[in-house]
Amino acid sequence: MIIREQNIGEQDKLVSVLTKSHGVVKAFVRGAKNIKSGKGAATALLSYSLLTFHEGRDSYSISDARALRIFPKLRGDVRKMCLAQYFCELALTVCPREKSADKYLSLILNSLYLIDEGIRREELVKPCLEMRLAAMAGYLPDLIMCRECGVYTAPLMFFYPRTGTLKCGSCGAKTDGAVPLTEAALTALRHTVYADDGKLFSFSLSDEGLRLLNRASEAYLRCRFEKEFKTLNFYKAITEP
Fold first, then answer.
1. Stated pTM of the model
2. What are phi and psi for residue 29, nearest 5 degrees?
3. Domain limits at 177?
């Protein structure tokens, strides 16, 4: 899947590709912007394609490309397209290089498919992808119990993004960026990292619960990867009052 593209001169471009076998790979596409080229659509951002790579002395190039899926509904919706671009930025940040990334690719493709077809709400898909990517990359939070008293759940629990831990309402406080969670929101947060892959998106949550879940997942990724995601900021700017 093409997760970034950059124009090079008048006819060529450089793309970042999330592949099954080698993770994120950068490659040149010669003549991609030529209207006679068959590689243009297949190497456009968000295209899921069958690509033939040629390994040169210092870089890769794509000699042949055939699009398998281009997510047309998603491309026609500004809001969804912005969210998809955020997914791409996450992939560039989190996914491995020169290593197998089959599960990463599958997760991102499934997430795009769900929002493209409107099968799941964007506000549900997004935190699932965020938390599962972080867990896959080795940043699994400890959501089992309150780190002070060991209680599993309470009407109010605090999630601490900097440490990836929980405290109950009695032991914790809204400090150090803590995100307050209802029981339903906490159950959903646990689901995003502990559920089987096939059931990751299979839950429902109220609007308020989704708001808290997204707040927790966004804060966790900011802390773990120590960056502000520009595409996320833009997505929020066009979706939030």
1. 0.94
2. -120, 105
3. 140-228
